[in-house]
Write a structure and sequence with these properties.
Elements lengths: L4 H23 L3 H9 L14 H7 L4 H24 L3 H16 L12 H11 L1 H18 L2 H20 L2 H17 L1 H9 L18
Amino acid sequence: MPVSVMDWLRYCIFVLLLPAAIAYFCGCFNGAVIVSKYILRNDIRKHGSGNAGLTNFYRTFGGPLTLVVILTDVLKAVVAVLIGMALLGSTDFSKYWSGMFCLLGHMFPCMFGFKGGKGILSGGTIAIMIDWRVALVVWGGFLILAVLTKWVSLGSIWAGTSFPFATWFVYRDVVLLLLAIIIGGLIVWKHRGNLQRILKGEESQFSFHHHSEKEAKE
């Protein structure tokens, strides 16, 4: 029995939506929110910059629980990409597709009022899962800028901006480039406030000691 066009479209939509939904819900497990809200009983989004990310968590709480935040945000990205590869095949598209939705879940988690983090740790993990050459450009620039300027946000903006360029350099694929633009664009957009403060010379510099509530603002 021949397959109709509508049946084929439904099948394609299902194949794409299932890994997308799983990756999104993986991303929703925001380490900073889970640890601060359910372990420390003190929601990180009520402190410092209000961002549910690693930098704000460390500045506000510090301590060994920071490692739990790191592991949560790294592992969820790894799981999301691996599941995407299992469902869509071990292809570059499956990595970008599942990675993009994992990042959306991290930034806009439905279980936490769509108020999440800025996606650098999870995004950086996704870059490593995609290709070492892409990760080298993203992480290399991030580390150099963060160390030299002590502005983690500047390194993060580099990561988001360079991601599409690194993708095109490695793959020369239009579809992957479009997904990379969305991923990189989301990261840059989430750091738009940081960029404004950098241009005004008002951005806080990162250090390994705790900041006051005012200093913790990114």
